[in-house]
Amino acid sequence: xxxxxxxxxxxxxLRRRWGLRQLTDPAYAFVFDPPPPDEWVALDCETTGLNVRxxxxxxxxxxxxxxxxxxxxxxxxxxVRPQRGVSAESVRVHRLRERDVAQGLPIDEALHRLLHFIGxxxxxxxxLEFDVAMLNQALRPLIGIPLPQPKVEVSxxxxxxxxxxxxxxxxxxxxDIDLRFTTLLADLDLPLREAHDALxxxxxxxxxxxxxxxxxxx
Length: 218
Fold this sequence. Notes:
alpha/beta, Nucleotidyltransferase, domain 5, five-stranded mixed β-sheet, disordered N terminus
């Protein structure tokens, strides 16, 4: 027999109990608290490459969103010291040289600060899946669990927004919609900050999220 609608409210409670059992450090139990209403954290990471297993995080940017406002006074901007150095190829992308991150935080300390900044708030980002995968690769050995917060993908919200605007004959699976960040921001009439800077990218994702919410996409 399938579970009826009344069973669904129990799911968050079950997930919370399961997560707390997996948590190896009870000091981080706050990530399972009910989130503050109408609050999110926009997040971005810069890394030494795109391989989740072998590359490392070298910068983290995050900013809080409350309602329709971005609280730039409540932001997190961290440099992280990698264990294996920074390649010339990755420097061309994010412009962070090895000497720039040499005095950065150890990844464990950076994650500690990030978790306390996020709390239990849902996460917002552009192609957030990669950033979360990179964070989880380092986080699981530290506290036993991946980031449990709900995730909101800005490109998915934008896709749905643009899909609804298509004429019916074009509304088909995998409709051709340009999801590049520059295109998305320009179409939403939002300012473009310097890219491949963790805090800038987090702020731009937050701006897009707020605009899409105003347009009824979230």
